[in-house]
Specification:
210 residues, alpha+beta, Peptide Deformylase, two-stranded antiparallel sheet, globular, binds zinc ion
Length: 210
C-alpha cells in the first residue's frame, strides 16, 4: 500500500517548538523540502515506537502538515494516518472513513478515548506494514475527545469501523502497532513478512565493507 520506508533514526529535535518539527532523518531533504512528508515510514522504523508529544499550539504550520498527511493518506489508499508514520512525533492523526467524500475528513489534535463499550475481532492492516493483515480485537464503540484545527474541543461517539480507526490511530500516537494487538494466530501468520520488512529496512543503510 505505502511506499518503501527506510530506517534512519530520527535525530534529536531542537528549539522551543521542537516537538512540532518534522523528522530530520534521511527521509527528508534539507530546506523547503524538509517540510514535506515524502513517504510513509514502514515498520520497524524506530519513530513508530515513540510516544508523540502533545501539541501545545495549533499554528498554520500544524494545519498545513495535517493537510499534507491527508493527501498522503489518500494517495496510499488508506483511511487513517498518524503523525509518527510520517516521522512527526506528535499527538495528531487524520482520518476519513469515506475517502471519496472530503466532508468526512477528521483531523484529531491530542485525541483521547474517554469511554468504551463492547468488543469485536476484525481483520486490520496498516500503511506502515505493507502486505500485513491480521485479526485484532477492538472496542466496538467509544467516545473520543480531541481538538480540531480551529482549536475547538470536539467529542464524538464512534462505532464499528470508525471506532476501530480511532483506536488504531491513537495507538500509533502512543507507539503501539497492530502487531502488538494481533491474535496469536495472526501474529504467527505474519512472522515471515515482518522479517522481510526488517530486512528491507536494514539493507539500504548497510555500508560497504572496506
Ligand atoms: Zn497504522
Amino acid at each position: 500500500m505505502g511506499l518503501i520506508g527506510k530506517s534512519r533514526a530520527a535525530r534529536k529535535r531542537r528549539g522551543p517548538f521542537a516537538e512540532l518539527a518534522w523528522g530530520r532523518g534521511g527521509r527528508y531533504n534539507a530546506g523547503e523540502a524538509a517540510r514535506k512528508p515524502v513517504e510513509i515510514l514502514h515498520y520497524p522504523h524506530p519513530i513508530l515506537r515513540k510516544k508523540g508529544a502533545i501539541i501545545r499550539e495549533i499554528t498554520p504550520e500544524v494545519a498545513d502538515r495535517a493537510r499534507e498527511m491527508l493527501e498522503l493518506m489518500y494517495e496510499a489508499k488508506g483511511v487513517g494516518l498518524a503523525a509518527p508514520q510520517v516521522g512527526w512525533s506528535v499527538q495528531l492523526c487524520v482520518m476519513n472513513p469515506a475517502p471519496e467524500d472530503p466532508s468526512r475528513e477528521i483531523v484529531c489534535v491530542n485525541p483521547v478515548i474517554t469511554d468504551t463499550e463492547g468488543e469485536e475481532v476484525a481483520d486490520e492492516g496498516c500503511l506502515s506494514f505493507p502486505d500485513v493483515r491480521g485479526n485484532i480485537s477492538r472496542f466496538l464503540k467509544l467516545t473520543c475527545r480531541w481538538y480540531d484545527l480551529q482549536g475547538r474541543r470536539t467529542e464524538a461517539v464512534a462505532e464499528g469501523l470508525l471506532a476501530r480507526m480511532f483506536q488504531h490511530e491513537i495507538d500509533h500516537l502512543n507507539g503501539r502497532l497492530i502487531i502488538d494487538r494481533m491474535t496469536p494466530a495472526s501474529r504467527l501468520s505474519v512472522r515471515g513478512r515482518l522479517k522481510d520488512l526488517e530486512r528491507e529496512c536494514r539493507a539500504p543503510s548497510r555500508s560497504p565493507v572496506r
